[in-house]
Amino acid sequence: xxxxxxxxxxxxxxxxxARLFEQAQIPYPIHLSGGNEDxxxxxxxxxxxxxYIFSTHRSHYHYLLAGGSPENLEKMILxxxxxxxxxxxxxxxxxxxxxxxxxxxxxxxxxxxxKNSNKKAWCFVGxxxxxxxxxxxxxxxxxxxxxxxxxxxxxxxxxxxxSKEARYxxxxxxxxxxxxxxxxxxxxxxxxxxxxxxxxxxxVGMGWx
Length: 209
Ligand SMILES: Cc1ncc(C[n+]2csc(CCOP(=O)(O)OP(=O)(O)O)c2C)c(N)n1
Ligand SMILES: [Mg+2]
Hints:
Layout: H1 7-22, H2 37-44, E1 52-55, H3 60-65, H4 70-78, E2 86-87, E3 92-94, H5 102-114, E4 121-126, H6 133-144, E5 149-155, H7 164-168, E6 179-183, E7 195-199, E8 202-206
Parallel strand pairs: 1-3, 1-4, 4-5, 5-6
Antiparallel strand pairs: 2-3, 7-8
Helix pairs in contact: 5-6
Residues 31, 57-58, 96-98, 126-129, 132, 154, 156, 158-160, 190 line the site of thiamine diphosphate.
């Protein structure tokens, strides 16, 4: 287990970022988590020191649970790096390309296996990321070569604001055992409040992402 950050601390962090965003202190896209604290805290109990964590455009909770400091994360967010948080010391990488880390996670898992390492790769994707062809390829490779990598689908039944049924009808893929899924109802909608604020003379659209 990497970090003992508790649910309330996660929520307080995201609320603080939300306020900063509303006050136009963060004129960059951000994606807030919320509603998935319990599920993530459970998952992170299995993630050990030295494991590799691959995250998404919605990475704040992952980073904090990986052991990242809230101060460091806030600094990165204020620099416009929310969608690509990276920390070499924590083996933490994220990508805003949907499922963009899945092939990298498979490659790292292959290297770990070749080195007889006891470390693992953990790769988070949204249900929108699950739709991507390269996700399928990475899963097939990990499953076929029995690599130490777990993919976790964070299923909030939306890709931006489009439900799974609207995207793919009743289709439900049965993934192999290296893929897990948890469901949650998000606190923040993907698209925001529609407010406009003035940031250094530039009109900036405000909203949760
Ligand atoms: C390859 C790719 N296609 C499209 C996008 C545009 N895009 C950004 S977020 C998003 C929806 C993400 O849905 P999901 O993966 O379920 O994550 P959630 O925001 O619901 O947590 C899309 C389509 C992208 N970032 N990358
Ligand atoms: Mg989603």
